Batch of 4 targets.
Target 1
Amino acid sequence: MSRFKKMLMNEEPKLVAPGVYQLTSSIVNVYFIGFPGEEWVLIDTGMPFSAGQIRQAAENIYGLGAKPKSILMTHGHFDHAGSLEELSRIWNIPVYAHPREFPYLTGKSEYPPQDPTVGGLGGQMSRVYTNKPYDVSERLEALPEDGSVPGLTNWKWIYTPGHTVGHVSYFREKDRVLIAGDALITMDMHNPAGLMGKHNGLWGPPEYFTPDWVASLRSIDKIAMLRPKVLATGHGDALSHRGLELDLIQFADKYRPPRHGRYIPEPARYSENGEVLSVPPPANDTLVTVLAGVGAGIIGLMAAYGAVKLNRNRKNNMEERIKLRRTNVELPWNKRMNRPPVSRERYKPVTFTLARRKNYDDYE
């Protein structure tokens, strides 16, 4: 079944590893970590309209009225933290994130602007996305510095920046299960077929929202070195096929950033606590240039049409004035009496010579 059909059918959570359930809301994944009947945590919160679906899925897995011990964030983009404020308030539970992600989860700073100039369908769609922060400062706590994960034994968090300055992944070493967020994904965001789940594979982070490519490439290398056997990401199906470890190593070796874009020559700059200090100037947006050219052409055509229309109206007005003037002038008798015009062949002028000849003939 394609991902598009699953979205329409309000997909149910599915087991991707022991005690790890994946729920897809729209094209974004959230994860429930914990066995039924035990304490559990939620990783990420999906889109702003996902709260009801997430709560229903939690009750399907863990029972009526189930709530997690905490919410763990990979990062705070709108498609991963969209329901964070609502769910953390309803459940009244702590939210854990990397300290450098705090400015975007306390309402202090906006993320660097998205970059549609990377191209592709995802880049064009990003024009309508938001980079606004969320505010859960009353319940926000930092992930422990020792790498442990509150509420989850056998798990540790891995710092994987690049897509955001405070992005983290979660790794269970005993069976090598990795929840990578958007450090890399398994969905082709630039292809309509990929958005409908027809292409499974490995892709880099969503390029239109990645402002530091040097850090991102290092994070991909770090993930490949973990040699996961199950890879669950923020977008796309979880992968657990034989040879995944080798595929990740080859992907890390071959993957390259986009050829052009705002953050290709220079990354965004951050303060020590993760706030945005500066961003490079926007790259040349070919779509805007094309649209500007098309708009200028349309305006030129409209101006030309208006000029032609104006000249035609002036000509028609002139003809109407001339016609009106002619009707007011006294016409000849035959015109006034609506008689046909005089034909030269029928009515020849009688000259003096002809008159004399006529009289002479009559006399004869």
Target 2
Amino acid sequence: MKSIKDILKSNVSALKTHNPNLETALNSKLNTSAHDKYNATNQPNQVEVFKCAICQDRGIVLEGDVAYPCSCMQIRKIENQFRNARISRELMKCRLDKFRFDYYTQDKADQSHREAATRALDASKSFVEECKVNPHGLGILFTGPVGTGKTFLAASIANELMEAQLQVLFLVVPDLLDELRATYKSEINEIDLLDTARTIPFLILDDLGAHNYTDWTRNRIYSIINYRMNELLPTIITSNLSLDEMEEYIGVRTTSRIIQSSRIFRLSVEKDIRHQMYHEREGKK
């Protein structure tokens, strides 16, 4: 049984911020409430709001002389994982079981869109399950036009890996390029950023598209992909480029390594899914 001292030490790094939207996304059962308390001078009607009603933000629950970690500590740990993964608030809601095939089946006579989506979804589910057992293996490259569900699948994979307590980093490639350019005169920051992208167990590179690559940024992208391929660290990549276009923008050697280290799935739809979602949303008003 852990002592109070040991538990407090193990929890010292836990953040005490709380994200209600993330709590909803994670289906947390934690109930947050306010407690009426007297202040130090015993004046009534003073309200102190605790983020956790169970442990009153201490991180431990006391039962006599025995202390137990509070259930809120696990929620804080997951929140920290999502925050460190750099995944956006909107994408935190993505899950593989929420994948909608009706976006791919407008033409009853042509089932090619749905068949491609089925293959991509099945591969995503298999990838998550396999990674829980063996974190070293092939990654996935999702290609296809804008609005075909590539980012949804990549974000769903990221979320489900994090819920399995696995480390993930979600990088949007245009943002990554901006950060790399910003570190051009700061070698230490660049090394930190690249090392994290190289060594994180699971990396998501979203929107590897026709951006303004320079030889300098191409070399950095190559260093990430090449290191991860050699160390058998899976990378999930989304791109609206064909493989030929990818060679043109990021280079032949980087594209070759992506192909070698990935399973490739192409998604397609008759109409941009975001447009479909817009009309669906506005039609309900």
Target 3
Amino acid sequence: MALRNVSKIVLCCLGLALLTSCGNTIRGIGKDAANTVDATQAAGKSVEKAAN
């Protein structure tokens, strides 16, 4: 019975760790996407200036 309770606690801790890492990954992807948009806009402005 004690082993069963320990197993449940370990599984809960692993689940929380996985959820935390997923949250960090999603936040990082959002930042990368925002940086990509900014870089694309900057490149577009550079091309526009060069064309003029």
Target 4
Amino acid sequence: MSDIKTEETIDKTSNGSPKPTSPNSDLKLDFASFWEYSPAPESSDFVEIDEKYNHFINGEFVEPVKGRYMKSINPATEEVLCEFAEGTSEDVDKAVKAARKAYEKTWSKLSGNERGKYIFRIARMIQERARELAIIESIDGGKPIRESRDVDVPLSAAYFFYYAGWADKLNYAFPGRKPKSLGVCGQIIPWNFPLLMLAWKIAPALATGNTVVLKPAESTPVTALKFAEICRDAGLPDGVVNIVTGAGQTGSEIVNHPDVNKIAFTGSTNVGKIIQKSLAGTDKKFTLELGGKGPNIVFEDAPLDQTVEGIVNAIFFNQGHVCCAGSRLLVQEGIAERLIQKLKDRMETLIVGDPLDKNTDIGAINSKAQFERIQNYLEIGVNEGAEIHQSSCQIPENGYFCRPTIFTNVSQSNRVVQEEIFGPVLTIQTFRTPDEAIEKANNTPYGLASGVWTDKGSKIFKVGQSVRSGVMWSNTYNKFDPTSPFGGYKESGIGREGGLHGLYPYIKF
């Protein structure tokens, strides 16, 4: 190998894998066999998914009142994974009554120390069943097993551990005040992080002495139903946590139920507006964590290789199904050409495929509807005059898969710049000065999360103070911690989840 020249250009093998060739020699250096990854599928043989699931109400699984069921589809294969109950007003009413009874007779009367023990036990059981939960999250939602295994499930357990610690310390959290629980909390979670969003909502609600009626997304209900099993096995008192499955109408029944004291919703901005209108004039507390169009700002003094990795993580993590994704890249003009080329080269190494293969970087789009939405935006971008670039990777014939995509030559008014696509699609703009970057960053209806890349602390503080964003990451992206609050401004939502701030929506004084 000592005769091989160090200067190389990149060619492609027949299956899309990079293959180095030397420009100074007629010899083709076929390294494909060195660079190809052998399949590394995660075994799912031990995972049990029932053919049919019912609602979890008052500590047991009960059939829906009207006997209706929906289907959950594996987005990587387009095969039916299971059937689950479709909740109606009668089912929601049963769940709310069970939650109210549990609140008044059991949960609100326990000491914080006792409540903390239950929450801690749930956290430990999530850890014990981590492998099973990670596999189900990937099968039901399409996300790569590496992400489910290393991010979603560990963080879910961490949030329960964190709020278990707060359960007996609420008087210290709010010194000089006497916090009281609210009652019954209605919670509606999205399909992009099913188990993690469940943890964000249920853990602080239980820690503060409330009971819960939760509806998971209709395309990813299975881990929530597995969590119901964990609640049952942990000995949680009946009715403290209730899971009612269904589609949008089921969520509407929870929002509008007169005996629910608090609504927590994570999802689209349009649905959030509907919920806010429904709650107007009532005394229900609410938090809304909605959409985003995160600007990721790169200055000329940023470390380029590190920045490229951060950009990839910001937009291609979880197929771009992230409300705080860095979906708008703003690059200072002096480095734009080099950075874009590095990004294109890095995109060629990303593997799109089977979510259960540990080599996979980008899994399946969550549903047919979301896949069609992304494809529609790709057409919109091209029709608006943007230049599109997609990686040359192969994608499976079956299932809903989308190659990582970037748009260049876009303007601030383009729909692909202004509207949330919720897929592996990145728009790239340039800027000359920090003020121009800040102006472009703030020029959308959203304000959930942002990133800044520079080696100058002064730029970090200037941008961080000026960008109207609930979260600002510096020289990194998509990093979460249970102690840190999360939430947005403008059309990205109201209220905060996580950290000490995440206790406020679940108490009164």
